[in-house]
Amino acid sequence: MAGIRKKHKDVNSITLKNALVHGSWRTRITLLISGFGNLLHGQIIKGLMFLVYQGLTWFVFFSFGFKYVQDLSTLGTQVMRSEVDPIYQIPVNIPGDNSLQILLYSIFAIAILVFGMVIHFTAVKSSYAAEVDIKHDRRPTKFLQDIRNLFDRNMHNTMLIPPAIGVVAFTVIPIVFMVLLAFTNFDRAHQPPGNLFTWVGFENFKNVFDLSGVMGNTFMRVLGWTLIWAVFATFLNYVFGMVVALMINKSGIRLKSLWRTCFVISIAVPAFVTLLFMRQLLGDLGPINTILNSLHIPAVQFLRQPLAARITVIVVNLWIGIPYTMLITSGILMNIPADLYEAARIDGAGPMRQFRSITLPYMLIITAPYLITQFIGNINNFNAIFFLTAGGPSATDYYNAGKTDLLVTWLYKLTVTFGDFNLASVIGILTFLVSALIALITFNLTASAKKEETFR
């Protein structure tokens, strides 16, 4: 038992700091030549793998990435130019630098280098681990034993490494790329490869927060509408969903399964199909206005008048959101102990008092995380706006935005339609900060966080 504890203590002491401080010259040379210590300790295959990986890392970095990293500070200096071919006497385009490639490939090159350094430091710790084993008269683990450990005691690392690499490649790197664009002038006037863009610092952020300019004015208005939309879209769905659930679950109501099925059917239809259908239904020449005209009633501009369009998207969203809340709250209602209601009735509490003192507190403490998730989801609810109004009606006093545009749909227009990638990156960063702050603050203020042990 003492030997096991000793070995466990040794394993815990295998750190990069201990390897550099207490390791032998073999381990310290491994800091320069990956796998050197493993080779001298008899771990031939492992040492060769570390050495080959170090060679590949440096080869890829210097043969591919280094030339882009060199230009990262300027994002290119040579613009594409046109020259006359001396033989055929026709203009020929001479390629210049591509700022977009320089930025993107530089990020990839740095990521490859960082990952290579992580593997390199792992080689140093591996060499030190072999030293510790030899010092305590234990044989260093062989390659086959390391392979078996990957599917035994180190199974957690084996399972986590592939998704971690995927997260870095397809999430972290694109996010870093997007954030860096916010500090450039990559807009419609600086589109590579014909033109270059460069670093401009915090100029884009200044433009967004400059309330005297069109951009700053647009940002504050779109942000205000985004928050108003998120509040109404979240809490109206929650309240009406809870009311529907209470009505269906009320004792004495017949055909409860039928009523639940009717609401589930609306969930089965994809939301974008419902939104596109509603867009046609509520259009200026849609069925509803056609019927109103036949009755000699003035047509209603559901999607073209700013206030009407905003009310319309909130009301249509109820059709999509209420069924989800109804299902969630139905499950919670059926799990509230009946003894609580029985005791309340004995004490003389009426239906409203039972709802305020039992049903609503129980519901809120369980669904508070769901409410926060829905609120943040509605801040970024691209489909509900894009497929119904496409952000319209348009506004001349807005910068490339409409009266129903959310931050996320405005961001889409800035990139896909207008090519202002730098401003879109700023909007994306600010949207994330707003969402993160709201989520963190509200969750920590809820009873779900303060009394999480109550309902376990």
Helix and strand topology:
Elements: H1 2-12, H2 16-22, H3 25-30, H4 36-40, H5 44-70, E1 81-84, E2 91-94, H6 99-135, H7 143-150, H8 155-181, H9 203-209, H10 214-249, H11 256-268, H12 271-281, H13 287-294, H14 306-333, H15 338-346, H16 351-379, H17 382-386, H18 407-417, H19 421-445, H20 447-450
Antiparallel strand pairs: 1-2
Helix pairs in contact: 2-6, 5-6, 8-19, 10-14, 10-16, 11-14, 14-16, 16-19, 18-19
> How many domain modules?
2
Largest sheet features: 2 strands, antiparallel
CATH topology of the largest domain: MetI-like fold
Outline type:
flat
What is the arithmetic mean of pLDDT? Answer: 87
Termini separation comes to 37 Å
Cα radius of gyration in angstroms:
31 Å
CATH architecture classification of the largest domain = Orthogonal Bundle
Question: CATH superfamily name of the largest domain?
Answer: MetI-like
Helix amount: 55-70%
Class by alpha and beta content: mainly alpha
Weakly predicted, low-confidence segments = 1-12
Strand order of the largest sheet: 1-2
| Overall number of strands | 2
What CATH first level of the largest domain would be assigned?
A: Mainly Alpha
Can you give keywords for this protein?
456 residues, mainly alpha, MetI-like fold, 2 domains, two-stranded antiparallel ribbon, 20 helices, 69% helix, 2% strand, disordered N terminus
